Amino acid sequence: MNPAKRPLDRVQSWWLLGATTVAFLPLVTDLPLWLVAGAAAGLGLRAWQIALRQPPLSRWVLSTAVAAGAVGIVAQYHTLFGQNPGVASLVLLLTLKQLESGARRDGTAIVLLCYFLVLTSLFYSQSIPQAVALLGAVVATTAALICLADSRLPPPRLLRLAGLMLAQAAPFLLILFVLFPRVSGPLWGLPRDAFSALSGLSDSMSPGSIGRLTLSDAIAFRARFGGALPPRDQLYWRGPVLTLFDGTTWRPATFTMGNRLPYAVQGDSLGYEVTLEPHNKPWLFALELPASLPANSLIASDYQLLAREAVTQRRRYEILSQPALRAGAFESRRVLALATTVPARSNPRTQELGRSWRTRHADNDAILREALAFFVGQELAYTLEPPLLGEDSVDEFLFDTRRGFCEHFAGAFVFAMRSAGVPARVVTGYQGGEINPVDGDLTVRQSDAHAWAEVWLEGRGWTRVDPTAASFPKRIEQNLAAAVPAGSPLPLLMRRELSWLRDLRFRWEAAGNHWNQWVLGYNPQRQRDLLARLGMRAPDWRSMTTTLAACGAVLVCGLTLWALNQRRRLDPGQALWLRLTRRLARRGLPPRRWEGPLAYAERIAAARPELSAAIREIAASYGQVRYGVAPAAEFERLRTRIAAFHP
Amino acid sequence: MLAPQPRQAIVQVLEEAGRIILGKEHQLRLAVACLLARGHLLIEDLPGVGKTTLAHTLARLLGLDFQRIQFTSDMLPADIIGVSVFDRATSGFEFHPGPIFAQMILADEVNRATPKTQSALLEAMEERQITAEGSTRLLPEPFFVIATQNPSHHIGTFPLPESQLDRFLMRIELGYPDRAAERALLAGADRREMAAALQPCLSGAELLAMQHAARAIHVAAPLIDYVQALVLHTRSSPLWQAGLSPRAALALVAAARAWALLDNRDHVLPEDVQAVLPGVAIHRLRPSGETSARMNATEVAARLIEAVAVP
């Protein structure tokens, strides 16, 4: 019977089902619930089929299921194409393939689909746990493939064989990983819907928007400083600058962008390296104020750093900053005019307050001091759970509720300053960060998101003023947890009582960072650095391909030599016998592995009577050589007999 | 390898025995191999398939003095090994040897006796000597026990425990004769009479020499590898509760040597091991749950053989 059409036995079916389940598990959180439930039901049905030896489902049932699934996918994603619908279709078809499989070749198809399914999981996550889970899935799938070839092997041996095969592939993997010429960005273009779920600072600010973000423990970026860390109150990571205000929401003004710094830099700078998590927006973060531009980036005239494209992959850049730098002493009139605009009828009480400051002081510095004093005197409460605010949000915050988060503080402060005629704008970004004691990197999380104000002062330019810090210095000196009242809902990791958990998290994140830096972030630059360290100066793709080929060849030669060495360990008599059995195998009479020479000879003699005398002689002779008393004497006879044997 | 004359004798033994026990050449050969390997033989089968006739025939042909012990449930150890009786003339105890002091013993229906009596026989088999009333008496050489046993589900039997089964080098089954053999049997003369009329082909000394020759058959390193692989497989396979012991491995090699001698070869081939494996190994293995108890020794042995590659 054609081996491809031979029916699957139960052991093989169980293995295929197991491999499919293991390959499917990492995708569970990324697929719509109905599909997960459907696939689970399908796999359960398959288990029932195997356990009770039921026949495969009929074509009609399967066709109906395919149609229903396709309709569901279209209803979910409005298309059948693209990443998510594609993965969903793959899961659907793989499940149904399980239900119709009966022959060996169905098993092979399932194994191939499982390998493919494992690859698709990488669209959604490339973290260490994911890699471990996928490695498990690959081992299980390979074991199922081996089981298709020989289902009598016990499961531990199957798994060991699969692991061995993958381990043998590891050197090739390593060589390809290190030496295969890298291109910037992924090898394949990911569809546009791939990054829709990433979170981070947005380009607008309204009451509550940052507060919501700070409930997340997710990492925004990591920074590695060459030297000492600057003091905490200078760790202001500049993000979107918001100039326009419509009464409730702050938005950025459209400014010009350039690839050169719009201000002069003198003196010493602080150098560091940032690894930014993808957030699907173009902004990059740097300490105020950046003194250099990373590659492929721009700076706006409000000093915000921008990438040329949205950051959809982890991005690493080196940058210099000067915390003491001031810029914008000669700011254009248009910018200053925008920075003093307030909507006419919005927040009348605050506008009135601002005007009163202006009538009392001519000097902007004096107004600034007065305003800060007012903010402190108002006894505002710093809370992650501010009450809902109505139309005149600034008035309500300052005079009625007096409870708010940094965006309330910053927004109200800028509004008040503008009402007094002082140019001011809101800057959002991150403040502070946390040193990971394991690797010394500064980790900045979404919970460090912050908003502060920037005031333009005659002769000095834009000056940072943090009204939150003025009222709650602990927020800046320590962190959020120190500033909000006890019992507030905080991200789990910020709670002090869970220090062991934080310690564990630090270690885990340090491991994750290494993974990001060296596995996921192994880009052309890293590759060049590593190769330079290994002694390859200025590697171009030609020399890299040559090295790759050379390493591959060395590896293949090594393995071949090893294999040949294994063969050379054969007894010379055994080698002669092997030559004979190969010749007979080509005639359709291969030896069985448990067959002794005489038994094999009898079988050959029965199948080919004309060979019987010769083969019996040879077998007896081989028995002498291999198992006899004086093998050397018989060896030459065996050699000539086998040489003369032509089946 | 044997000199032509003993070789001729052993061929004659097998031929003559084959004329009386019809259609059982392989079992006869195994029985003779067992004898040459200085082992004891257990024949397990239904009553009336020729167990006793086989023992008789072999004893006659090999020129051994023969004793038959019919085991019963009321038998005592002294009924086998002998008893000391007071002699008035010498006013002392005199030992009257029991039936076990013979070169070939047929222990018929050994599973009818109580374990106490069984163990007396089995100890004698193992030690090849008897200790009674403080003095040790050697048993004759060669010493060969053929025990027969009814399948243990028969009523009123004490099946031999595994530790006792281990004392037998081989356990074989005779089985029903095939149609042609049975027809010849029915048409022919009485088998017991035919056996009684046989002339010995070998002397006791010749037999001892052959046993010696069997021990000198060459066992090459690859063959030891093969035996080890078989034994290791039984120890790791889920088919059996426990694998073969070193004693079983030794028995396998000894029996394979005797088998090679019967084939007139001076070295052991894997085929020899495979031929004796059903007789030597299977009664020492306890099947685990999944191995069906209904498989006979040959089928079980075939599974074992097919699982291990010949080196």
Structure, described:
The complex is a heterodimer of chains A (647) and B (311). With 647 residues, chain A is of the alpha+beta class. Chain A folds into four domains: 3-179; 209-498, no CATH class; 526-536 and 543-568, no CATH class; 572-643, no CATH class. Chain A contains 23 helices and 17 strands. In chain A, the strands form five sheets. A five-stranded antiparallel beta sheet of chain A has the order 10-6-1-15-14, with no helix packed on it. A five-stranded antiparallel beta sheet of chain A has the order 7-2-13-16-17. Chain A has a three-stranded antiparallel beta sheet with strand order 5-8-9, with no helix packed on it. Chain A starts with 9 loop residues before the first helix and ends with a helix. Chain B is α/β, with parallel strands linked by helices and 311 residues long. Chain B has two domains: 4-208, P-loop containing nucleotide triphosphate hydrolases (Rossmann fold), CATH 3.40.50.300; 217-307, Magnesium chelatase subunit I, C-Terminal domain (Helicase, Ruva Protein, domain 3), CATH 1.10.8.80. In chain B, 46% of the residues lie in helices and 14% in strands. Chain B has helices at 4-20, 25-36, 51-61, 78-81, 115-127, 162-165, 179-187, 191-196, 204-215, 221-236, 246-262, 270-281, 297-307, and strands at 41-44, 66-70, 82-87, 92-97, 104-108, 129-132, 135-138, 144-149, 170-172. In chain B, the strands form three sheets. A five-stranded parallel beta sheet of chain B has the order 2-5-8-1-9. A two-stranded antiparallel ribbon of chain B has the order 3-4. Chain A binds chain B through residues 154, 571, 592-599, 623-624, 626-629, 631, and chain B through 218, 220, 222-223, 238, 265-271, 274, 305-310.
